[in-house]
Amino acid sequence: MSYTPYNWPLLALEIAAAAGDLPSNNSDWSIILNSTCNAIKELYELNGSTSVEYLQSFPNPCTIPPVCWFNSQGLAGFLEQNPLFKLAFSFTETFKFLYPPSYIFLFSTFQIPGYNPINVPLCGNVTTLSQIQARKYNQQLQLFQKVYSTNSNAYITYLNTGQGPIYYTFVSNQERSDMNSAVALVNKLYYFKDMGQAAGWQIPFPLS
Q: 41: closest CA among 32, 31, 28, 51?
């Protein structure tokens, strides 16, 4: 199987299966995630890419999500559109009903049709909203995207030049407070902790 950023969870499990060491818990998965991240980084470096370029090669493991990724569909929406990533997120607290991928290999080994987390439907925490709630929701999301974009660009510029970084300056305490609320909302949609544990996706710059 050729490698693309969108099939690395399967690649990670195939490497583990070949070594006879399928992950059964979050700790095991962290070891495999780090190994996969390092292996893919090496592929990028062999092609002349820099560490900064790799950080921007989302959705590879251990990379920075682009601002356009954060939208109203949330992480659940992304996983529905890219179901292979459910293999990685089966180790998280948020999606407790996604059991470890070892179940797939266990059933397939004995040629028994069984559980597959790829086929489990997901839905986000933010669902039905009133018109007023939807307007407020969109305003918060737009503010988050504005601050995130500014700080992400500042961080990448800092890595490239060694100067700065100069992050977003809030115009008032109210805007900062609004941003704190926006971060809380986006965290309900994207579960920052699980992003880091399952995929190594990181936000290495301040949000508020």
A: 51
Residue 27, C-beta contacts closer than 8 angstroms, at least 6 positions apart: none
* DSSP one-letter code for 72: T
Buried-exposed string 137-161: b where 16+ CB fall within 10 A, e elsewhere = beebbebbbebbebbbbbbbebbee
Digits of tens for pLDDT over the chain (208 positions)?
578 999 999 888 888 877 777 787 788 889 899 999 999 999 999 999 999 999 999 999 999 999 999 998 899 999 999 999 998 998 888 888 887 766 766 666 555 566 778 888 988 766 666 777 788 889 999 999 999 999 999 999 999 999 989 999 999 999 999 999 999 999 999 999 999 999 999 999 999 8
Domain borders along the chain are 5-199
Distance CA 125, CA 75 (A): 10
CB atoms near residue 68 (< 10 Å): 9
DSSP states along 134-173: HHHHHHHHHHHHHHHHHHHHHHHHHHHHS--------SSH
Phi and psi at residue 167, in whole multiples of 5°? -90, 175
> Could you give the residue ranges of the DSSP H alpha helices within 72-130?
74-81, 86-89, 102-109
